[in-house]
Structures are given as C-alpha cells and as structure tokens.
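Researcher: For the record, we're logging two predictions in this thread. I'll number them. Prediction 1 follows.
Model: Prediction 1, sequence and structure:
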Amino acid sequence: LCSRYINEALERLKTKKVTSENDLSLLERVLRSEGDPKIATIMALDLILVGIDTISMAVCSILYQAAIRLEQQDKMADEIRRVLPDPSKPLNYSDLDKLHYTKAFVREVFRMYSTVIGNGRTLQEDDVICGYHIPKGVQVVFPTIVTGNMEQFVSNPEEFRPERWLESNGRLHSFASLPYGFGARICLG
C-alpha cells in the first residue's frame, strides 16, 4: 500500500509544477528532499503504524475514562456546547484552545493511565543516574505511568482530578505527564 502511494507521488513530482512547498503533500516533500523511495517508505510506515497505534489507544482510553466519570463527562459536554455552539461551524485551533477543562481531562487521563509504556533516550555521553554510572550508548527508559504517579511530581497522584491542570497556584512538574515524550524526539503519533 505504501509503495503504491509513493510511486504515485513520484510520478506526480515528475509532472507537477511546484511554486511553493504548500503545493506538496507531506509524502511529496519527503520524496523531494530525500530522493530515496526507501526512506519515504520507512517514514510512511512509521507514521501509519505508530500514529494509528498510539492515537487509537489514547482515544479509547480517553473515551473509557469519560464514560465511567459522568460528572467530568457533563463538565466537558457543557464546555464543548458553550465553546462550539454551532455544530455546523468548522473546528479550528482557536476554539480548541478554549476547551480548558476538556484538555485538563485528557492530560489527567494521560497522567494516570498512560497508553505509552515509556520514553527512552540513548545516552550520548557517560552519565550518573541515581548514583549509577551509565555508559555512553546505553538506552535509558523511564516509564511514564510511574513518573505520572509519583508524589514528587504531583500531589495525591492516586486521585483523578483534571482540575489540578487548571490551578494557578503552581505548575505541575513537567514529568507529571509525558505520554508521548518530549523534545526533538517526541512521538510522531
């Protein structure tokens, strides 16, 4: 399937007059910059497989938690009706940014019930972690469900409370919720 789309994109690039990067699909941009269909295939498979798996698991988890938490579900429904009163109006980022409680609910689900096992990095130099010498090249993984439920990062971690993300009396530690990693190597999904 990926090969078919890649071959079609290669053919389009041969005949397509490009005046701007905006004229190109993501696949066409990769093919144009890399020039190697194998790299495009690997990237497409990563995007499809990783994206589908992580997003579908996250959506299922969010919907399940909303289904068993009727009070929070009602708050989100009220907020959505208030922010998006006209269901025929196209959704935009500005409107999504106004869904504060809904975003807090999602972050709380990710904090307590991370659908991602953990985040890892390969050490670029020797390091000492908690008194242990770890040599360069070793893959270090931290489990997100553990960090999201540690009292040093979040108070009363066993309590499901989306409001904690809305409180202005202090930010939560950045490790309280990292379901898809961080930085330049954040998960594509």
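Researcher: Logged. Prediction 2.
Model: Prediction 2, sequence and structure:
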Amino acid sequence: MKKEHYDILIIGSGISSSFFLTRILQKKEIIGKKILVLEKGYEESHSERKARRFRKHNGVVATKLDPSKTFLQTDDTNKKWTYSPSFGGSSNCWYGNTLRFLPNDFRTKSIYGYGIDWPLTYEELENYYSIAENIFQVSGPSKTPFPKTSSYPLPPHKLSGFDKLLQKKFGSLYIATPCARPSISIEQRPKCCNSGVCHVCPIDSKFTVTNSLSGAYEDPRVILKTEAKAEYLRIENGIAKSVLITYQEKEYEISADLFVLGANAIFNPFLLIRSGDNSPELGKGINEQVSINCSMELDQITGFDGSTVISGLGYMFYDTPERKKTSACLVENHTAPILGGNRWKNGFNRANVKFIFEDLRQSQNRIELDSNGKLPIVVYKGHHPRTQAALKNTEKYASEIAKAVSASSFTLAESINSTESHIQGTVPMGNSTGNSVVDRDLVHHKIRNLCVLGSSSFPTSPPANPSLTIAALSLRTADRLFDSGSRS
C-alpha cells in the first residue's frame, strides 16, 4: 500500500470544502504547506453537465457517478435524498438561493422552547455572511428581515407583479430573493437568463465552484484527486493519523496533520462510523425542510414577469409569536412556469408558490452501515410531529396570500414534495459530547485534529436554504483554526 503525507487533507470539494480552502490559502500559516483534496466523483465540465441535462436522479441532473448507487434507504422510500457527487459538489445542481438564517433561528430553545440552541449566535456569524455573499456575488435587496452590516454586492432581481402585491401587503417581510444568480453580468458569469432550468444553468450564470473558485485548486500548494474514495480514518488515542483511500484502483494510506470532512450529511457520519467513532449523536437526526406546492389563479396580474426563477420570498409566517406553537414557514414564489396538463388554462395569470417548513432532528432518523460495512443506509421514519402538525397551516397561509393578491382560486398539492435537496443534522455542533459531535468551531470534541464542515453540523433545520450558512461557517472555521489566538 502506497503511503503519502500532507499537512492538510480535505475530503469533498463542494461549497463547504471550497470556501474553507479558499480562506486558508490566504493565511500566512499555510505558506509552504501541502494540501490534498479528495473527491469521490468525477471532474465534469459545464458542457458535459449540460449534455446530460435530460438524465435525472431524484429530479437533479445525473452525474457520471450515480448517487443512487452510493447509499441505501429503508422505511420511507418516498423520501428522497439528493446530492451531486462530482467536483464542486452540489454547487453544480443547486438553484443558487443564498438566504441568511434569522437571529432567532440560532436560539429556538431559549426563545420558543423547542429544538436546541446553536453554540454560536447570528452576531458571531454576521461578518462571515457578508464575506460569503461577496464570494457568491449575491444579488439582493437593500431591506431584509435579517440585520446586515453590509450591502449585497449586486442589485436585486426584478419582482413579478405577484411579488409586488405581496410586498405591498407585507412590507419588509416580503423581499426579492437573495441569490447567486447575477442580476447583472459580472466578470466570471453572465446575467441570469431566467430560463428556470437551474440544476444545470444553460449559460453558466449561477455560482458554481468550477466557474468561481477553481483558482483555489490551481494553487501549487493544492493537489486535487478526483475519483478518489475515502474508506475510513485511522484514529489512535484521539488523534486522526491517516485515511485509507481507493484511487485509480489502488489503495493508499494518506497521513496528515489536519483532517477536514467536507462531504454531506450522509457521508460525513458514514466515514466516522466506519472509523470507529462512537459519539452518541453521530449519524442521528438526518433531516431537511419539508415543503408543499400551491398554484394560484390570478386576475389581471402575471406571476411570471420576475427576472429569476425564484423571484420573491415571504417571511410573514416565519419568525412570528406563533413559532412557540408551530414550525416556521418560508414562502417562495417560483417565476418559472410549470408546463403540462391544463396548467396553461389561465395563461400567465398564475403563480406557483411553495411553503417550506422547518423540521427537527430525531434519533430514529439516522445513518447506519450496511451488513458489509461498505455503504451507508439512510433510516428515515418520518418528519417530526411538530412539522407534520404545522403542515396543516398551509391552507390558512395560502388563503391569506390569495386574499392579498385577489386570486380567484388556489390549489394545494395533494402531497408534500419528496425532497428539498438539503441533507442536514447528522454530526451536530454543540457545547458537549452529550448533545453534539463537533464544537462551535466544527472541531470534533474527541478528535481534535479533525473538522466536520457542511450542514451535517446543523443542530436545527430552519426553513431558509442552508448554503450561505454552510459557506459562512467554513470561513469562520478557517479563521478559528489558523488565526493566532482565535481559539480559546
């Protein structure tokens, strides 16, 4: 078995890993260091992904490495778990929504009596939100439901007629969607074309690691190995010593001083479980937001004249006093029309709305090993009872929106959506080993030269999209590890 050594070893090349890598390369402590990044998927060009755009897995454009072959699923098989195993990770298939969490999302236990408080606050993350927004080149409004100390780098997208009526009704609780789909052309990327097929943007407008952060992987200190599968970590006396990998049909043992897991919330815990980590909360709590669609028939106005696929966001049912009794709900307006059936009977005088509810970690929903220990099994028993009860509010919320826009009627989908494509919660952060696996800096409680990035560390699951928070946390972890005196 061939052996190699690097100063830093990063597993995964998606948003969490790439933001971390970009940040540490700016540090004087990294001068002269050797960094290895392992990606189990292939490196695919934009043209390759575009050529494959009609091949789908769980609604997402298929990658060369079929994600359905990488994990197993039991129980609720109608529940889908979506990710993109390729260089750049899910930046290749995301829609580019870059929402901040609200301050109260970090303290639901102390404010509303449910969930668990995060071990850090909005205020501690706020500066990193701003840095991440500049890297993403976010288009966004001047007024938001969350506090900001900086302006978005790009102007907001145009609201639709439907959006404008809701903004008139709900004020600053209804905004143009902050997103990494440019509202104007920028150096690396053209203006969003609003074609609504964002899983693979036809003009490469939305942010991806490939079109915006590939320079980090061209740094001479960095070696990227794609089609490289991490098998397990060798851990001795609370220290990660090496990782065993399969690369080009050969086995390697790679040692490092610092290990960084930047896979998703299925594979981060899977790798740790295979490595003998017995942290009580490890692998438990897999979850994501729960959503349901609604179509509205409009009079006089159009729902499709916004300038990007999701043009408006509603926070009017999100952080209200009702949150003590029910789950927070975010409203999305989808500007792209849905084709097929009789959906065109009212022309463009329609709106397609999605209601997105927060969910909570439950130990019954978890990651296990298959009988051979080769693949992760997603065991999913169902959404949290609090979330299931909150879904009953959807008709009331839809009625309030319909009244605000004078809709002639609305129709709720018969069932909830199978996925929100945000896998979370299986390596939660916290202040003790009793309720978490990593600390507030995303460093493993027991294995102090190991970090776990990404939404697997989220102890709760707010309705807002997680990508911006993932990026901000990665930037913060980079600073905490490599800025002298920043870690207590």
